[in-house]
Amino acid sequence: MKSIQAPQSVVMIRPHHFCSNPETRDDNAFQTLSNREAAATSEAALAEFDQAVADLREAGVRVHVFDDMGTETPDSVFPNNWFSTHAGGHVAIYPMFAKNRRLERRYDVIEMLKAEYRVQDVIDYSGLEADDLALEGTGAMVLDHMGRIAYTVKSNRADPVILERFCTHFNFEPIAFEAKDAQGRDVYHTNVLMGIGTDYALVCLDMIVDAERRRTVANRLEESGCEVVDLTHDQIGEFAGNAIELTGHKRRLALSTRALKSLRPDQLAIIEKSAEPLPLSVPTIETAGGSVRCMIAGIHLTRRTA
Fold it and tell me: What residue ranges carry the coiled-coil annotation (predicted)?
């Protein structure tokens, strides 16, 4: 059951002042405005977060929760963008595009990782923000840990120079491509249209603009042993691509309730051969333009023995 693609432990950031970030609204077509008052929106997001953590823990996933009390970090609930962890004891820290998102980085998280898990090195790319360069972690890149491929949508949140540098340091092959939604808008993060499990991959191939690149992505996923679950534009709009496979008491695919409802029986049948869906209800948090995958930073490190 153990899978290098499906971590057993995760980091999540508990948001006390959640709102849809005005600094990211221009290029995140998934963002919407809440019709609630700010305080009610924040309270609803906090309740959704706490229930999601409880559901994950009940499923056997080890969840490290950090409270964010800051008022200037509305997207802190999405920590997968500013750091990632990798087998062999490696950690990456990333440069962020929006200035207020740069405030999300917190070194108590990194110190916890060093204390609880075997960390050999931390490579910090965040200094490249001074040159207005960004690579927003596992939002910008969807990583195939088995096939060692970093699938990346070209955008202002995924600089090609940093992508090449990351892939050299962490031994991934970059596969970059342009992607647009049904309205012809650029896709801001790869993980809204794609998620890779142990034996399957969720992806909207229609969003990949270049036909040859589309075939390449499908072929490489299949070469890695993944059966492709080809999602529609409408399903991407329901966050069906924004899912993460985790290992608890058994292998689970964590995704939002909304995303699960959008999947067809034939698509679910492919997923359920390998992992049981774990739906989490996060409709308020989804107004910020991200869903369950964005909320979870997987820990691909070896836990220290007590």
Answer: none
pLDDT at 31: 46
Q: Which two tokens stand for residue 45?
A: 């997001």
- pLDDT confidence tier of residue 124, bands split at 50, 70 and 90: very high
How many Å apart are CA 254 and CA 256, to the nearest integer? 7
Residue 84: how many CB atoms within 10 A of its CB?
A: 23
Angle ∠(159,160,161) on CA atoms, nearest 5: 95
Q: Among 32, 34, 21, which Cα is nearest to 81's? A: 21
Higher pLDDT, 98 or 38: 98
* 2 assigned to some structural domain: no
Q: Is residue 96 part of a domain?
A: yes
Structure tokens given for 175? 């596969």
| Number of compact structural domains in the chain | 1
pTM of the complete model beyond 0.85: yes
- Hey, is 276 helix, strand or coil? strand
Residue type, 233: H
